Amino acid sequence: MGKKQTVDALVEGGKATAGPPLGSSLGPLKVNVGAVVAKINEMTKDFKGMKVPVKVIVDPETKEFDITIGTPPTTQLLMKEISLEKGSGEPNTLKAGVISFEQVIKVAKMKQSSLIVKNLKSAVKTVVGSCQSSGILIDGKEAREILKEIDEGKFDNLISSGKTEPSEEKKKQLAEVAKDLSAKVKEREKQKAVAKAEAEAKAAAKAAATGATPAAGATPAKAEPAKAAPAKK
Q1: Peptide bond preceding 21 in cis form (omega within 30 of 0)
Q2: Which of 90, 133, 149, 153 could covalently link to 94 via disulfide, CB atoms 3.0 to 4.6 Å apart?
C-alpha cells in the first residue's frame, strides 16, 4: 500500500464543486472527483452559507478515499443560528443580536470535537465567550453574567439534558429582544454615517480654503533689488 496523500480545502457547505481547489488537487491522484464532491456536499449540507475546512485522504494505489470535515468558526455558527449577518463592531456597548442558551448548547455540540475541552459544559463556556466578543446576548443577558451563572451550576440540568431548541414562548420573547437590538444597531449606523459625512465636509472645506487664498495677515514677499555690475577698470 502506498503512502496516503491528503488534500486540504475550504469549501462552502453543501456547494463543493469539481473545479478548483478540489478538482485541481485531486485530479493528479486519479481519484473519482465526482464521488468525493458528492460525499463532501452530503457531509456539509448543514453548514450552508459557511466556509467549511475539509480533508480528503487518498490512497494513490487503490484510489480509495476518506473525508474528514472540520467545523466553521464558532462565530459563524452563532450568527447562522440567529440569522445575523455580522457581529457588533462595539461588542461591549452595542449588542448585535440575541441567542437562546439552548442554541448555545447546539453550537457547543457542533464544536466540541475541535475544542480542547474535557466536557460539554466547558465547550458551552467557550461558545459563551464567543458570544461576548461578537456582541450577542444569551437569553437577553450579557455573556459575562451567563458565565457566572454557569459556574454557579444554574445551567447544569439544561446542559445535561442536551436540549438544543428553545420553547416557542422563549422564541417569541427573544424575537422581541432581537427586534429592539436591531433598531439600536441601525440608529448607531445612521449616527456614524452622519458623523462621517460632517467630518468629510469639514475636511473638504478646510482644504478648499487653504488652497484658494493665502493665510490671513500674510505679507507678500518683497523682491530683492538687482545687484549692480562691477565697474570696469
Answers
A1: yes
A2: 90
Are 109 and 123 a contacting pair, CB within 8 Å? yes
pLDDT digits (tens, 9 = 90+) for 73-113: 899 999 999 999 888 889 888 999 999 999 999 999 988 87
The full set of domains in the chain, from first to last, is 5-69 (3.30.1550.10), 74-186 (1.10.10.250)
The three cell numbers of residue 80 are 447562522
Residue 187 has pLDDT above 50, yes or no: yes
Determine the 3-state secondary structure of 54 from DSSP: strand
The pTM of this model reads: 0.69
**How many residues can be counted in the chain?**
233
